[in-house]
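Onboarding guide, step 5: your first structure request.
Type a short instruction followed by the sequence, for example:

Predict the 3D structure of this protein.
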Amino acid sequence: MNWKIPFSALVLAAGMAQANSFFAMDTAVRDLKELDTVKSLGYDGISWKTGQPEEVAAAQVRQHGLKLFAVYSYQYAVLTTSNLMFGDPLTRAMKALAGTDAVIWLPISSTAFTNSSPDGDRIAVPALQRLAEDTATYGLRVAIYPHKGCWTERVQDATRVAKAVNRKNFGVTFNLCHCLMAGDEAKIPALLADAAPYLFLVTINGADSGKGNSSWNELIRPLDEGSFEMRRFLQTLEALHYTGPIGLQGYGLKIPVKENLARSMVAWHRLNAINAATPNAR
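The system replies with structure tokens like these:
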């Protein structure tokens, strides 16, 4: 079997249901020079980041026959007591990404409100509604990116806000490592169920179970490492009929990019093959 063919194509050829697209995050790729590796290993695409020429990244990704799934806009949404401020790079990114169908990943930081506090909703929600309308004119979507240390540091924060924003092109991302860091491992099935109607993207990686509030070294590992039950996590997504993209997180890993991407792709195929063989296992 040729593992360089994207798993989604193999699944379709076998007459099975459509698989989730699997992409490598910029943290796992690090440099656009790695796009040949990303393509050869069978990834469906990548995510990237603002602060660099987004149009260049989008063009190079497209030239390699890959898809740009998301662009991460860290520190460009800051919530104050009177406004939610967006930096110029975010506006530039929206214009540069028009027509790519990419998702704008939006963590929201604040020194005015404590992390996870709903007190900021009254200020953030109207601003995010306007942002959703602006991005819609470029054919883009926005997904809150829960990130440790941010106002929206938990997926339940993102879901709460997305419900209030109530725009079709505005949703949430489920980041496994940040959910584990927040100590919410036991809540994952319930959190995913609540987020499901708004869930645009999911990011995964190998991780150790029971290590909430520990270190990224334990919570971000290659996909073939760690004691966290990834197979059951993917089965939970399947049970919720999540068919969106799944990204590979690689922040802080010390091993070479190609090694991590190759090992993680083998693990991805193995996990999907096991789940396909045991569809009723929950």
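Each response can be followed by summary notes, for example: Confidence is low (pLDDT under 50) at residues 1-18.
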